[in-house]
Design brief:
The complex is a heterohexamer of chains A (491), B (123), C (89), D (781), E (157) and F (116). Chain B contains 4 helices and no strands. With 123 residues, chain B is mostly helical. In chain F, 63% of the residues lie in helices and 0% in strands. The chains are: A mainly alpha (491), B mainly alpha (123), C mainly alpha (89), D mainly alpha (781), E mainly alpha (157), F mainly alpha (116). At the A-D interface, helix 1, helix 4, helix 5, helix 6 and helix 7 of A face strand 1, helix 5, helix 6, helix 24 and helix 25 of D.
């Protein structure tokens, strides 16, 4: 196992390169891409089952001793997110297969998709801060290329803004790495954890932690850094926005979790009030943003911000319960939101628009599609028995039981707004008399949307298993010494 | 002995570099400055590189140094030539002391005989 | 002896870099700036060569070679620009 | 399978498959839908037997759902839940029966019956739930299903509006209730109602906030003023739905919650004031509002509101009598009001309108319907021998000796009489205007009595109301008493002897007065109406709950755009400013709050050489030149110079490879810049005002200074020897590289290089993909 | 000489001076060669350039001498307290025929005292020379003819 | 040395953030380039503890003391970072170019289709 899980980086890289070389042969390209994604998913599943018993797999680059060379590590959290990313990307690839029509654009799509996957999975499995930066850049570069896939006016503008904002984030990241290296002279996460613990939360360490919070906030769209998200998620081609909302933002969340639990636990305790404030602002911004929109995808984008606020809130509680809730929320929201964005794409196929003003009466015209969307909206609004309800419930429980009454109360209060926008959006979409004729959509599209939406129900009715797992994950990541010793023993 | 020679070469080379820069500052217009820049820098580099090759006492380094010198002598004038022509075409702001300007006349004549609208800016 | 020479020449190079840089900033015309930049590049080459001597590192000599080429390319491109500068600026 | 689970989950199972039946058998799907309530009722009776056999002891059934977060679906069986179960299931059966005649062939029957049965299931879930969370879950399920049932005719704007209003108000109430539950659970450390009712002192521990949150859930659900506004709009639903959800069951869920929490929260000091206050206000407001309505269903809706107020008032008073009265009236009102709704449905169905001004003399046209309506109405007015009389008497009794806040208890009897008068008044109106008087206008269709099947359901209900009045003994100790006991909690034992005649006493006097006043006002209704209209005109457009709701909704829809634009105005520069200023501000705040020990910053300028200074000046100057040069070529030139300077700096820092790479990269990027701009024609200069310039420079300098300080501080605190020594030692012997940097790049940190190359490749592909579009780029502006 | 030959020559030089004869370095050498050739293309038509080595050396000697003078002169001008220059642009009629000759001449002119070639007329006959001080233009021309043109003509024509 | 490094970095950051906030696309791109330089310098500076030899192990074997050399790790990291920043800057440049071509303006304030 230790030997094969670097494949999560190498396999997509090889596949992507190969796919670009054979880009002229569309059939071969697509089949190989699907095959690789399937293999990836299987590997992720194996890793998940292997980490279930709490072992942390460590792969040392070139067998160099512990803190010096790059070390890849996979614990439960990593395995979970790997499964998440590979399954969602797979579904989106299937979707794209019958969604993208423009041949000229298609040929670059699959290679870039695999590079994107490589970047994300690299971020998940690396345990080296600078290596994390590198994989961030891989991921971002792929998204820069994929976001503005058709390069119309909107996409160009969006891609440009997105690129600029993320460049600032990268610079901040390097600043953070520099500060850390200057202070403790290492870049391996576990080693950093050890030495920072020795150093204690000096002001400089706290400032560094703050910098990292903001760096990862850009990916995770926490309040001041969320500005790129609405356009990026609503303008980019649908499969990409699904991946963005489903996995990419989770990369930021994942990194924040690692910082909070492994690298700077002490510093985060000092930062906690500010973090909670940021989370509430994020929730507020997301909720506020959904209200005046008329584009389905844009509403979904803002609701992503809203949900990310809740996830980050769970993390900011810095307790095992909060983290478990956050992990549950991450998984649930990933499948749910990508399902809904793909659903928006499905409706674009059917009606040729994502503008709610031009939709309506879908309940009669496309019952199955509107049923899928209904599941999504109910889950987003936090209604039982779907994942959304349990996710919110667990976060709120953690908050209340921790005595953060006011903050949790505010977070709960914004539930009213999410109630409002979800139901009105569904009404404007499914009820009423507006909208024109409805076309047809391929089986691949319906299949992928249904596949992803199914999780909203599965993890709702089967919340038991997911939450058990989330607690296992939380139990593991709240004990950084496990992670550290796993590396030490090999080093 | 060779050390002393190397030292002299180094000092001389960098001195000429300095001269070039001073000339760059003092001389009145682009063309005059180019005189200094081209000649002195090339010469200076030559000196420094020779010095280096003397110090290293190494076939590879020597060859490299010589090649570099050769290359500099080859390119510096070309560059100067290109720049000065371009500079003139941009607007021949010759300094006040300038006495003759045959080139200007030549260009005028060229303009007169064939009106060719320049076609740039369309990718 | 060599060391002293290198030190002195480094100082001189520094001064010339400074002067060239002043010209670069002052302008006045873009052509002046290009000339200054060209000189600057050559100066940097000199500095590198001196470093090669100081740190007995042959690598730098190749660098000089490569950079000579590169700076020439740069200058050429600038010249090309100045040619059609009337339009661009 | 346990009976409780059959009762609750069988309807859901049926609801899932009903659409298929509806596809197959169209109208007859009703009979399949009918299976669910019948099975539930049958199971209920089994359960009742089980419970009675067990000595009427409360018992619970649970399935763990997410035990780790202690979420479970668990049911408790006691008098209260059994009574409610019977109410819901029985009513459900009748409603389905009625719907079969009411609905037309072509309507979406699958959706209708599906949601109807699902609603019944969730309502049963509500009344049986033991665990707080499962109570909440079923509670929200009733909200959703009612949302879809109200919006059944989804192409009507009115029903969309009504559905949104209902889901918003009841849903928000539900959220508040959830908050209350979570806090309550944390305080009590116990999530099962069956356990909570055994904790007498819990009420004293919880704060007013928690109390109010839970009450909020109840009052929004059962349409108490000022949250009553959703109920009239909910009347857009098909009439059977109105009869089921909005008179008999769902709106009574709030009542259920109150009575379920009476043993838990009843001891709370605020209970009397808050609950009674809501009840009284609602009772009167509903009565008044119903007098100004013309739509029959609106009249009934406001009537329902007022009656709910009445019951809530009972609960607010508390005490034995009040609880019994509430329980009885619950039954009575459910039966009678549902029957009245059904008659209205019949009228609507046959006459094609519900406007009392267009209807008249229906007494002659549809005599059977008329009789049913009269009996039901009289029962609610409280005329003997209907059941309503008994409850009315009890209310008066209670109001004379209120268990609630005693300070202004003299006030209660008058209020109750007042409310009773209005109850009488609007019910008389409900009878007279369509049935007895002549019509002002003309009904679309010529009304006549419906087929007998359609009359069956209301008839049964009316019989129930009658039977309850004439022979209360049938249910009083079998069902009502246990329910009241459960509500009172604390193992209360009741032995009821209800009857119509208690001899001549104060309550009797009060009801006679009520009747007299009611009749008087009815005969002088014209004057009453003018008074009400003048009052309404005087009220004018003062903020009423409805206006506030509409205003806030339109603000949500339209007003938020402006606020959003304050932040997301699409201007990249503003985004950049935010992204750079806010983090810096946060960091500064942090720096200000924390104490930095002494000598964070180094004083010495060790290692500064002339060349370093020169290069530093060069870099800095070139950088500022890049910012300040007006001409782009000059700026690019300065950028290149800066790059060369940085290369020189790398040399000084003893990083040869870095210097070389830097110079290569720099030249490459400069050439790239130039090439790109080779294709750009002249751009028009964009001036920027001085104030903006100053602001930007301010921000920029601030950032720069912060970075400088932080970097200096960090560079001054090398607490640990870096891991680099290892590389120095092992590079040559182990990795086999003289140049340690190369060793690190290709060996120790190979993945970095891998990623770096990948980035280059992707950039290549991206640019390739972009350049494929040059064709499309032509002549675009 | 033919382009490819030249390229390979340069590449071999590169290998030789790099000290390590690996294909990779050879490739690098080739790349560099192509660079150089790209930018000096004008002057490669003919393959006579390897003959008359002697006259080459003559040219080289005089050129070096001129270069020294040139730099000394620059030194004088630049470091003299008051600039005493009367610059100007004068045409110089060359007798060189081949482009290579013209180019070499132009470049040499640039590197030799007080002169800087600005442009060559389209018919490759006149070289416009910027001169630092021209009290007598014909003297300057004479100097160029003597010091440079004759050796160049001897070498390449 | 330390202070000078820090100040250079500060100056670069200043210029970068000023340029980034300007109205012309080209200025923004230039700012990004400067910013990436600043970031690389930060990394290099973070490894600076004092003067030392370039991290190249001499041929003559035997025990060498690591303190005589400067820290090689930041150099390696910056080598990676430089190339990455080149790639990104290049892409951003091309993107800006096409944005200009499509919108026909290089004024950021006018490229505002995506509000709210």
């Amino acid at each position: 196992m230790n030997a094969i899980f670097p494949l999560f980086v190498v396999l997509p890289l090889a596949t992507g390169t190969f796919l670009f070389l054979v880009r002229k042969n569309r059939a071969l390209q697509e089949s190989v891409s699907m095959l690789a994604l399937l293999v990836n998913l299987i590997l992720a599943g194996i890793l998940l089952s292997a980490t279930a018993d709490g072992t942390i797999f460590v792969h040392r680059m070139g067998l160099w001793p512990f803190p010096y060379a790059i070390v890849l590590a996979a614990d439960r959290l990593t395995a979970t997110l790997l499964c998440l990313s590979s399954s969602i990307v797979g579904a989106c690839a299937v979707f794209a297969g019958s969604y993208l029509t423009d041949a000229q654009r298609k040929e670059a799509f699959h290679p870039l998709l695999h590079f994107l996957l490589m970047g994300m999975q690299g971020c998940f499995i690396t345990s080296d801060l600078f290596n994390l930066f590198v994989f961030f850049e891989v991921m971002l570069m792929a998204t820069y290329a994929l976001l503005g896939f058709y390069y119309n006016l909107d996409q160009l503008e969006m891609a440009f803004k997105y690129t600029c904002m993320n460049l600032i984030a990268s610079a901040l990241f390097l600043l953070g790495v520099a500060l850390l290296y200057a202070q403790v002279g290492t870049v391996n996460m576990a080693d950093l954890a050890v030495k920072i613990k020795l150093l204690g939360p000096t002001p400089l360490i706290v400032v560094t932690a703050l910098i990292f919070v903001f760096v990862f906030s850009v990916k995770a769209a926490i309040f001041p850094m969320h500005l790129w998200l609405p356009s990026a998620h609503s303008i980019s081609p649908t499969p990409i926005s699904a991946i963005l909302a489903g996995v990419l933002v989770k990369v930021g969340i994942y990194s924040i979790i690692r910082c909070a639990t492994l690298i700077f636990p002490a510093a985060f305790l000092i930062l906690q009030p500010g973090l909670i404030l940021l989370c509430l602002l994020t929730i507020a911004m997301g909720a506020l943003g959904t209200l005046p929109q008329t584009s389905l995808k844009r509403i979904l984008a803002y609701s992503t911000i809203n949900q990310l606020g809740y996830i980050a809130f769970g993390i900011a509680l810095l307790s095992q319960a909060g983290l478990a809730a956050a992990v549950f929320y991450i998984v649930g929201h990933a499948y749910l939101k990508s399902a809904m964005l793909l659903g928006a794409g499905l409706n674009q196929k059917l009606t040729g628009t994502v503008d709610l003003e031009e939709m309506g009466g879908m309940m009669g015209k496309a019952p199955f599609a509107s049923l899928l969307m209904l599941v999504g909206f109910l889950s987003l609004a936090g209604f039982p028995p779907f994942t959304g309800f349990f996710a919110k419930l667990f976060v709120l429980q953690a908050g209340f039981s921790q005595g953060a009454i006011l903050a949790t109360g505010i977070a709960l209060g914004f539930g009213v707004i999410s109630l409002y926008y979800n139901f009105t959006t569904y009404q404007r979409y499914a009820w009423g008399t507006g909208g024109g004729e409805v076309g047809a959509a391929g089986a691949g599209i319906y299949g992928s949307v249904a596949f992803l939406s199914a999780f909203a129900v599965i993890f709702g009715l089967g919340a038991y298993w997911l939450f058990e797992w989330a607690q296992l994950v939380a139990a593991q990541i709240t004990k950084p010494e496990l992670y550290i010793s796993a590396m030490r023993d090999l080093g | 002995m060779s050390e002393a020679l190397a030292a002299v070469l180094l000092l001389g080379g960098s001195f000429f570099m300095l001269v070039a820069s001073i000339g760059l500052i003092r001389l009145p217009d682009v063309y005059c400055r180019m005189h200094a820049a081209t000649k002195a820098t090339t010469f200076g580099m030559g000196g420094i590189l020779l010095g280096a090759s003397l110090i290293f006492q190494n076939a590879a380094v020597t060859t490299q140094a010589l090649l570099a010198i050769f290359f500099l002598f080859l390119t510096a004038p070309v560059a100067a030539h290109l720049i000065s022509r371009a500079a003139y075409k941009r607007g021949p702001d010759l300094c006040a002391e300038t006495t003759h300007d045959e080139y200007g006349k030549y260009l005028e004549g060229q303009k007169a005989e064939e009106e060719s609208p320049e076609r740039y800016g369309d990718a | 002896m060599i060391e002293i020479a290198v030190q002195i020449s480094l100082v001189m190079m520094g001064a010339s870099v400074l002067l060239a840089f002043i010209r670069l900033i002052k302008g006045p015309t873009t052509s002046d700036r290009v000339v200054a930049a060209d000189t600057l590049a050559t100066n940097v080459l000199g500095v590198i060569a001196l470093f090669a001597i100081q740190t007995h590192n042959k690598l730098f000599i190749i660098a000089v070679l490569a950079l000579a080429i590169l700076s020439f390319v740069g200058t050429t491109v600038y010249a090309k620009f100045l040619e059609r500068g009337k339009i661009i600026e | 399978m346990d009976n409780t689970f059959i009762i609750v989950f069988f309807p859901f199972a049926t609801a899932l498959i009903i659409p298929w039946f509806a596809e197959r058998f169209r109208k007859n799907a009703a009979w399949f839908a009918m299976v669910a309530p019948i099975v539930s009722t049958w199971a209920l009776f089994n359960l009742y037997g089980e419970w009675a056999a067990g000595g009427r002891q409360t018992f619970t059934r649970a399935i763990a759902w997410v035990p780790a977060a202690n979420v479970e679906i668990s049911f408790m069986v006691d008098g209260l839940s059994l009574m409610w179960g019977l109410l819901v299931a029985g009513m459900g059966a009748l409603i389905v029966l009625y719907s079969h005649w009411y609905l037309h062939e072509h309507e979406a029957l699958g959706r209708y019956y599906g949601f109807l049965i699902a609603f019944m299931g969730s309502m049963l879930g509500v009344v049986f739930s033991d665990h707080l969370i499962s109570l909440f879950i079923f509670w929200e399920l009733t909200s959703i299903t009612s949302f879809f049932l109200i919006g059944f005719w989804s192409d009507r704007d009115a029903s969309n509006y009504g559905a949104t209003k209902a889901i918003l108000i009841t849903g928000s109430g539900g959220l508040a209730m959830l908050g209350g539950f979570l806090l309550l659970g944390d305080v009590a450390g116990e999530w099962r109602l069956s356990q909570l009712v055994l904790m007498p002192d819990i009420a004293s521990q919880i704060s007013l906030g928690v109390f109010l949150l839970i009450i909020l859930g109840a009052v929004t659900k059962s349409a108490q003023w000022p949250f009553h506004i959703w109920l009239p709009n909910a009347m857009e639903a098909p009439t059977p739905i109105s009869a089921f959800l909005h008179s008999a069951t769902m709106v009574k869920a709030g009542i259920y919650l109150l009575s379920r929490f009476y043993p838990i929260l009843g001891a709370h000091p605020a209970w009397g004031y808050v609950v009674t206050g809501f009840g009284m206000t609602t009772m009167i407001a509903g009565g008044l509002l119903s007098l100004r309505a013309y739509d029959l269903k609106a009249i009934l809706a406001y009537g329902t509101i007022s009656q709910l107020g009445l019951i809530v008032t009972f609960l607010g008073f508390g005490g034995k009598g009040a609880i019994i009265g509430a329980t009885l009236h619950l039954y009575n009102h459910a039966a009678a009001k549902a029957a009245m709704f059904m008659t209205v449905g019949i009228i609507d169905h046959e006459a094609g309108t519900r406007d009392v001004r267009l209807l008249g003399n229906l007494r002659k046209l549809m005599p059977k319907t008329h009789i049913l309506a009269v009996i039901a109405a009289l029962s609610l007015i409280g005329i003997p021998p209907m059941g309503g009389f008994i409850t009315k008497e009890m209310l008066y009794e209670v109001s004379l000796h209120p268990g609630g806040p005693g300070s202004w208890s003299w006030f209660w009897p008058y209020i109750t009489v007042f409310a009773g008068v209005f109850t009488a008044l609007y019910h008389l109106r409900f009878l007279s205007e369509p049935y007895w008087q002549a019509a002002e206008g003309e009904a679309p269709k010529h009304p006549h009595d419906p087929p007998i099947g359609m009359l069956a359901a209301p008839a049964i209900l009316v019989l129930l109301a009658l039977a309850f009045g004439l022979a209360p003994g049938l249910i009083e100790n079998a069902i009502v008493a246990p329910a009241a006991e459960a509500t009172l909690g604390g193992g209360a034992q009741l032995e009821l002897h209800l009857g119509l005649w208690h001899g001549v006493n104060a309550p009797l006097m009060m009801s006679i007065i009520t009747m007299a006043l009611g009749l008087a006002l009815y005969f002088g209704f014209a004057h009453v109406k003018t008074v009400l209209d003048t009052v309404a005109r005087a009220w004018g457009n003062a903020p009423s709950p409805n206006r506030i709701y509409d205003a806030s909704i339109s603000w949500l829809r339209n007003g938020t755009w402006g606020i959003l634009l304050l932040i997301q105005d699409g201007n990249l520069r503003r985004y950049m400013r935010l992204m750079m200023v806010l983090p810096t501000a946060a960091a500064l705040y942090l720096v200000w709050r924390m104490d930095w020990g002494a000598n964070v910053f180094p004083g010495n300028f060790a290692g500064a050489s002339f060349l370093l200074v020169v290069i530093a000046l060069m870099i800095t100057g070139a950088a500022f030149a890049t910012a300040l040069f007006k001409r782009r070529i000059a700026a690019i030139l300065a950028l290149g110079t800066m790059g060369y300077g940085i290369a020189g700096l790398y040399l000084l820092l003893k990083a040869p490879d870095l210097a070389l790479t830097q110079i290569m990269v720099e030249s490459a990027s400069v050439v790239l810049f130039l090439l790109v701009f080779y294709y750009l024609p002249e751009l028009k200069p964009v001036p920027s005002s001085t104030a903006k310039k100053i602001r930007d420079w301010g921000i920029a300098v601030g950032l720069g200074v912060c970075t400088t300080l932080v970097m200096a501080a960090a560079m001054n605190t090398h607490k640990f020897r870096t891991i680099a020594d290892y590389f120095m030692r092992t590079s040559k012997p182990v990795a086999g590289f003289k140049n340690v940097v190369n060793a690190i790049i290709v060996d120790y940190r190979g993945y970095d290089t891998l990623g770096e190359i990948t980035v280059l490749v992707i950039a290549g592909i991206a640019v390739y993909a972009l350049l494929r579009l040059v064709g499309d780029m032509k002549c675009d502006h | 000489m033919p382009l490819a030959t030249l390229a390979f020559t340069i590449a071999t030089i590169w290998i030789f001076l790099h000290g390590s004869a690996t294909p990779g370095h050879f490739f690098v050498g080739l790349v560099m060669a192509f660079f150089i050739i790209r930018f000096l293309k004008k002057s490669y038509y003919q393959d006579r350039t390897f003959f008359r080595i002697g006259s080459y050396f003559r040219y080289l000697r005089s050129f070096t001498w001129e270069l020294l003078i040139a730099n000394v002169q620059v030194l004088k001008i630049v470091l003299s307290p008051r600039l005493s220059i009367r610059p100007g642009i004068i045409p110089y009629k060359t007798v060189c025929k081949t482009p290579l000759g013209v180019t070499m001449l132009a470049n040499s002119i640039t590197l030799t005292p007080g002169t800087l070639s600005i442009d060559v007329s389209d018919d490759d006959e006149t070289i416009f020379v910027h001169t630092l001080d021209i009290d007598h233009p014909d003297e300057v021309a004479e100097g160029i003819r003597k010091g440079l043109e004759e050796p160049i003509v001897g070498a390449v024509e | 040395m330390l202070w000078i490094l820090a100040m250079i970095i500060g100056a670069l950051v200043t210029v970068a953030s000023y340029l980034i906030m300007q109205r012309r696309i080209i200025q923004v791109v230039l700012g990004m380039a400067v910013l990436s330089h600043a970031a690389n310098l930060m990394i290099v500076a973070s490894g600076w503890v004092g003067d030392g030899k370039a991290p190249i192990v001499p041929k003559t074997g035997g025990p060498l003391d690591p303190f005589a050399y400067v820290d090689p790790l930041p150099q390696a990291m910056v080598l990676t970072a430089i190339v990455i920043s080149l790639a990104v800057t290049a892409f951003l440049l091309v993107l800006a170019f096409f944005t200009y071509k499509k919108f026909g303006t290089d004024d950021i304030d006018e490229i505002r289709r995506l509000k709210g």
